[in-house]
Amino acid sequence: MMGGGLTATANRVRFGIQSAHEIVETALHELETRDHAWHCTTRLLSERALRMADTVDARIKDGDQVGPLAGVPFGVKALFDLEGITTTAGSVVLKGNPPARRDAAVIQRLIAAGAIPVATLNMDEFAYGFVTENAHYGTTLNPHDPTRLAGGSSGGSAAVVATGILPFALGSDTNGSIRVPAALCGVWGLRPTQGVLPLEGVYPFASSLDTVGPLAARAEDLRCVFEAMSGTPVADIDDVMSFRVARLGGWFAHDLPPALLEGLDRIMAFFGSSHEIELSGVERARSAAFVISASEGGNLHLPRLRKCPMDYDPATRDRLMAGALLPAAAFIQAQRLRNAFRNCLRELFKTTDILIAPTVAGVAPRINASTILVDGKSVPARANLGILTQPLSLGGMPVLAAPLAPHPNDAEPRLPVGVQLIAAPGREDVLFAAARALEQAGILGYLTLATS
């Protein structure tokens, strides 16, 4: 649908070549008729979206400025507030809550830029998982192979972009919930610097780790959406070859398939670097992230768990209850580990501009496989697909999840695999510059279903 990218779509609307109404109507029709194959959406916002599209068209007719995302439809993970709708956060537990009085802050900014929300999207209940298997709304399937998982917890957001129906979607990322599904579905995703984007109107999971961000089909689209969400343009950097790039080894180099290893090698060769860094304490950092997430999530839900435990997805309920029972001493120790690991990470950026790591150690697991292999052992997929994203969340740094482009020598299409590009806090400009260069070089970038 979105040939030429998000900017080209917005330009067609601004210059009167195509109406916002037509674009939004087409997106809604595609979601209504095609999404049964993937289960990305939980609700269509048809009436509101078409009304907003008509407003955009009327403003253009009157000669008003309508913003860089004029008429561009997008999807919203079901934990963002939308005016007049009860926010579910992927659950039925909140169904008795009153409708939201206003849109979430980042959605307000996107609408001000001309974009139009058209659907709410499936997720793991309360964002607690990496698979988007939801007992209430179903499992989101991977558009590249519907027998496989889309990842989570922002699985509906990544999958709907991978279908090509919508050019971008919003997700949240506490421990990898944007990055994991982006990798498995072959799209771009951004966990921005913690605190850069407002969380007003976003249902929390673990507040001290939560972030929100966009997923998109192209690096430049991702940048455009982030600029609208942050309200600040990203500075251009032309001299990317001066970037000091290092690859994370050790924890981040285990069990990687050949396609992923080859892609990491190509990235390092592009920058002329062979520098590898092995971080100490990664396993403890991941454990700390688990404890912080479980404790904060369990504490948030404890009053409701006491009243209506059986309304929860059983897997979510058990994990939240376990978190609520963790002793305070464990949470305090986890925070100490978090601070030490964050300081270690940030120290690296005194001598390094970008760290490179895989996002997930392989392709999307099959839906009927509830476990994945880690160091030769079977572990639950729901908790462990984020094994490479979770430790990095503790640093609060921006992390760009990027799909590896197919190698020119590939005999046939392969399932997506992805990498993480990590920079110092506030340096999203470095990540977008590197992503653009690598996409132009044919090293990063995966074709969505609409263009493959």
From TrEMBL:
Superkingdom, natural source: Bacteria
Pfam families found in the cross-reference section: Amidase
GO MF annotation terms: catalytic activity
SUPFAM superfamilies tied to this protein: Amidase signature (AS) enzymes
Domain Amidase: 22-238, 315-430
NCBIfam families registered for this protein in UniProt: amido_AtzE, PRK09201.1
Protein's name in the database: AtzE family amidohydrolase
